[in-house]
Automatic annotation (TrEMBL):
Polar residues bias (residue ranges): 12-23, 119-131
Comp. bias (Pro residues): 81-94
Biased composition (Low complexity): 71-80
Limits of the Thioesterase domain: 208-274
Xref: Gene3D superfamilies: Hotdog Thioesterase
Record region (Disordered): 12-131
Cross-referenced PANTHER family: THIOESTERASE DOMAIN-CONTAINING PROTEIN-RELATED, UPF0644 PROTEIN PB2B4.06
Name this protein carries in UniProt: Thioesterase domain-containing protein
Coiled coil region boundaries: none
Pfam families (alphabetical): 4HBT
């Protein structure tokens, strides 16, 4: 007699639900395989067993690829801004307005300087000094080298039309005219100078009068020239300067500054002098005009120990 085995499978609700899910997944897999093998015309074939959502890194890769594509693409050129047309300069001989001020100013300066030169040369004091054999005439400011003259206060800054119109005229006694011996036994020449200069209208202080500071500068300039012949190196620096003003100076006039070295001791030299405003001569002379002493001065000059290292200012 045959023996039949009966297999009894006990299922629980959870087990049956699990089998149901598995069977559904199998059916879905078969359908997807069928769709991939026989795709519809309107749908693209799909890869089997691919998840419906891409992994997280897929979006990053797509962004990177888009950036690479943008970087590979040629840069967009910005619109070109039209340049303005170049400026054309007028030809050298075009009809431009002339500037006559340059030539006119030069002519005026030359005329004024020539007039002052004539006034000084024809003045009776000038003619008397030129006839005196004890005096030697010079124009020290003209002997200063041009690079030094441009930076010099008197010969450069204060010189020119409407200021110190022309370089001053200087007459000095010759070195052999008189001499003395100091306590150290060294011979020094006692010198005397006469300086004539013209002051223009642009060096005033109070309206109608010459600035007192300018007169002090002229004393210092003339005194230094006077003591140079009494010092071994020919160079003295101002140690003390006193000026006593007597009358105000008037611009547009000639002035005479007399200086005399009165004492020399070693490297020290004392000098004194007076400044006179000369009366006008010829047609410009006023009735009853006389020479007027404007100021008197005295000073002490010292020969510096480093005189050999100083660049000489004058050539004579």
């Amino acid at each position: 007699m045959p023996i039949h085995c009966l297999t009894i499978q006990l299922t629980t609700p959870q087990t049956s639900q699990h089998h149901t899910i598995i069977s559904q997944e199998r059916e879905n897999r078969k359908k997807r395989q069928a769709q991939c093998l026989y795709p519809e015309p309107s749908r693209a074939p799909c890869a089997p067993d691919q998840p419906s959502h891409p992994p997280p890194h897929t979006s990053l890769q797509s962004k990177d690829s888009s950036k690479n594509e943008q970087s590979r693409s040629p840069p967009q050129q910005s619109p070109r801004i039209p340049r303005p047309p170049p400026r054309t300069l007028p030809p050298p001989h075009s009809n431009l307005p002339a500037t006559p001020s340059i030539n006119t100013t030069t002519t005026t300066q030359t005329t004024e300087e020539s007039h002052i030169e004539s006034l000084i040369s024809t003045h009776p004091i000038t003619q008397s000094l030129r006839q005196n054999p004890l005096f030697t005439e010079s124009r020290p400011h003209r002997t200063i080298p041009l690079p030094l003259r441009q930076n010099h206060l008197v010969a450069g800054t204060l010189s020119g039309p409407t200021r110190l119109t022309v370089p001053p005229y200087v007459w000095a006694t010759s070195p052999s005219s008189s001499s003395t011996t100091t306590q150290e036994g060294q011979g020094h020449t006692q010198s005397t100078t006469h300086t004539i200069f013209h002051i223009g209208n642009n060096l005033g202080g109070h309206p109608g009068y010459v600035h007192g500071g300018l007169l002090t500068v002229m004393f210092d300039e003339a005194f230094a020239r006077c003591v140079s012949a009494s010092l071994t190196s020919g160079l003295g620096m101002t140690a003390n300067l006193n000026v006593d003003f007597r009358k105000p100076g008037i611009p547009g006039r000639l002035f005479l500054l007399k200086a005399e070295t009165v004492k020399v001791e070693g490297r020290k030299a004392w000098v004194r002098g007076d400044l006179t405003m000369l009366k006008r001569e010829g047609a410009d002379a006023g009735a009853g005009e006389e020479d007027v002493v404007v100021a008197e001065g005295r000073a002490l000059f010292v020969e510096p120990k480093f005189a050999d290292s100083i660049v000489p200012l004058y050539r004579n």
